[in-house]
Amino acid sequence: MTVGVPDSVLSRYARFSLYNSPYPAHDRGCAIDLYPGTLEDGRTTAAPSPVSGVVRETRTVRAPPKPYAPTHDHLLLVDCDEPPELEGLIARILHVEPAVEAGDRVEMGDSLGELVRAGFFAPWVDNHLHVGVRRPDQNLRRATGSLRLEPDVEIRPLAWDGTGTVVATGETYAVLDAPTHPNPGPEFVGIGVGRGNGDHADGLAGVLDGGLPHYDGGGLLETNHRRTRGVSDHGTPEGPLTLAGERIGTLEADGRTISWDDVVVTANGDPVTGLSTFCARDGGFGAKLVGSDHGLAVGERVRVGVRRG
Question: What span, in angstroms and rounded, lies between the C-alpha atoms of 113 and 190?
Fold first, then answer.
């Protein structure tokens, strides 16, 4: 069973990703991370609800031990009645310290509490809500087992030659000014990937979603138009995919999941941990390199490459 995530949900957030995570709950796009960004009131920790419904349960859960994060997180279960695509299903929401409790009614956009950075997070990951969806007859507390999700929104793949200038850095990441979002606000974009081998890539197949190659595989997200033309997760042929003219992996038979090749991402020839990819509608979008020893500085010109491991 595949559940559509409509624009009425996704448009409330600055960014989203189905595959950019190391945790099995995201396998084959069965969970989505929703990044609110900075809200109109200036807060970066508010957790706007993706659904309307009644809170079924809140509970504290253990998180992987990390020196930079608390060892606990929180699970919220919400019986959904909106959006219509999720009516009758249960939303599983993590990474929120709840300000609600069982029996409370929440509306789409209401704050569920405060976003938290538990041990599930890599240090370069921004605050977000982790959301999975299940039927009421499923095990609601188990980490894996959520239904496959399909973002039902236009996503524009952006061509990128692998170059850019560093505009922001942290200890574990560097953000480039390219590719540039052509229409910030209403439209979601992502780094485009080609189909084929190397220089013979045949146009842009869709948007790359995932951690290349530091997480186990990624995803190819396509626009509504490609899906409605039949070039979809049931019609897209499996085969090699390329980024900036270099082969990065193979599209699997489901038409969306990517198995990475044995590759290394480089910045000006030096290896980095990888490239973090996602869908975004904010003007701050750009390629994000991750790695604790990236050595990059704001203003530096960078050429990102992919080579065999």
Answer: 29
